[in-house]
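Entry 12.
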Amino acid sequence: MKMRFLLLLLLLFALFTVVFTLPRLLEKERVPVPSVQTTEPQTETLEEKSFPYETAWGETESRRPFEPDYKPGEPVKREKLPAHILFASDIHYMSRSLTDYGNAFHELIDNGDGKAVRYMPQIWDAFAGEVIAAQPDALVLSGDLTINGERVNHEELAAHLSVIEAAGVPVVVIPGNHDINNPYATAYFGDEQSFIETVTPEEFWQFYQNFGYGEAASYAPDSMSYLYILNDTTWLLMLDTCIYTPENRVGGELRPGTMKWIEQCLQEAYAQGITVLPVGHHNLQELSRVYVEECVLQNHDEALALFERYLTPAYFSGHLHVQRIMKHKTEPGVPDEVYGIWEIVSNSLIIPPCRYGSLTLHVDGSMSYHTKSVDVSGFAAANGETNPDLLDFSAFSDRYIHSVIRRQIYDSLEDLPDYIKESLADFYAELYRDYNAGRQINYSERKKEPGYAWWDRFMNPSIQFRQVEGMMRDGMSVNHNAEIPSPY
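Predicted 3D structure (tokens):
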């Protein structure tokens, strides 16, 4: 009996060793898995650096929030090389070969947001001439290059961009939500709209390989984002914020692998005193009281925190079709001298007054920005045009966008006398024209106008009245120029 008891104790001891002690010993001997997150500034160049987050386009990692764990420390102060960059967005290029300008085409523009598609060739040629004459260090196009992602439009636009590059101006592009896997790629003939071939991400890359993609210093692993070195002290972080797999969507995001890659780029630039300018199609901040859906990045809070962690001076975007400039403040009342990233949104090049942006980078790290309207009239006169719309494009474009929006608002109003509908439609269209162009709006004065009184009386509350209020309030700020100080 005593022998059996001793054997039982030995068996229990052996079992205890296997269950509890052995795993701990093995754990101590296990080789630690190295973290893929960089924790120290790297000295090798981006050409030499390998990025470990290899996934196919459109595949996504875990959707847990991105949390950077690197502490940047004090910034490296360094004299900058001066530079000049032109920005344009939402070109929505459309080939003449896709329409006969019949009823289907007019249905497109009559129900649109004021795009002057009929005069796309002249607007583009005038714009390209101004870019070539200015000879900037780069022309940056922040997405929605085509009307709806039509393959032929990408082909033609790439050919036009080649002309600009041949004249000595580098062009760098990113896609917008209209450009890839777009199920609404369309041709317009007679009374019919017919769906035509769009492009895949791989085809987009091929079309624009000479306009940033083939010249990049580094690429994100899970999107078509890339790093473009403008000069020794300025990098352009060209960010693909679009969602086009498994299907095209209007909204945007920065994918997890792209976020990790962005931080690696920012870390290295910060350690060398290099200015990084991120460019994305979708917005980083909620900049509009009018357009409140699918404009801002889905993970914009994470992106804002990441960019500001490395004292990024400004973020450039489009998508909104409204000229907007806003400095990020963590809360109301923060003094203007406290650092916050600026966002500059270029309105659509094809929507009157057809503006683009000009950015000058100074040696002290500060920047100056202003907008300019394409001189279509000057181009038309110089090239022997006889069309009065083109020869006085400023007046025509004002009338055009007003008439398009006025008609839509008038038709949407019901159960009101015609004279009230006309007043409501006129007020809305005038406000829309100024808001889209980024013109400053005097809120208190506009509220005194009869048109506003009709809106307040008959349409409050309604979505359209909220838009009227939003345009007036947003338009109170200056959106055509900005002096951006060095963040340190």
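Annotation: The CA atoms of residues 132 and 164 lie 6 Å apart. The chain has two domains: 83-379+480-484, 387-474.
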